[in-house]
């Protein structure tokens, strides 16, 4: 599964570190999610969508 997290994050001028801090996760885990090496839990995806001002379905796409 691919994602649009980097684009959505950059649209808000947030660094990976900033987003990780807001989500209360490690920068390492944030990097893995953004690079498609890990999938966030549903709860984390909902929190991420809230922070990025989008819908959960806007975060991800099928490869």
The name of the CATH superfamily reads: lambda repressor-like DNA-binding domains
Structural class: mainly alpha
Identify the quaternary structure here: single chain
State the domain count. Answer: 1
| CATH class type | Mainly Alpha
| Morphology call | globular
Q: Mean pLDDT score, rounded?
A: 95
Helix content: 55-70%
Order of helices and strands: EHHHHHE
**CATH architecture descriptor:** Orthogonal Bundle
Q: Quote the CATH topology.
A: 434 Repressor (Amino-terminal Domain)
Number of strands: 2
Write out the strand line-up for the largest beta sheet, numbering strands in chain order: 1-2
Radius of gyration (Å): 10 Å
Question: Topology of this protein?
Answer:
Layout: E1 2-3, H1 5-11, H2 16-23, H3 27-34, H4 42-51, H5 56-59, E2 60-61
Antiparallel strand pairs: 1-2
Helix pairs in contact: 2-3
Describe the structure.
- The chain has 63 residues and is mostly helical.
- The chain has a single domain, classed as 434 Repressor (Amino-terminal Domain), CATH 1.10.260.40.
- Helix content is 59%, strand content 6%.
- The protein has 5 helices and 2 strands, in the order βαααααβ.
- The protein has helices spanning 5-11, 16-23, 27-34, 42-51, 56-59; strands at residues 2-3, 60-61.
- It has a two-stranded antiparallel ribbon.
- Helix 2 crosses helix 3 (27-34).
- The longest helix has 10 residues, at 42-51.
- The protein is globular and about 25 Å long.
- The mean pLDDT is 95.
């Amino acid at each position: 599964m691919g994602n649009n997290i980097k684009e959505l994050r950059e649209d808000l001028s947030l660094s990976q570190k900033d987003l990780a801090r807001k989500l209360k996760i490690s920068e390492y885990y944030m990097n893995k999610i953004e690079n498609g090496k890990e999938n966030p839990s549903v709860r984390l995806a909902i929190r991420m969508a809230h922070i990025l001002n989008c819908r959960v379905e806007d975060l991800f796409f099928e490869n």
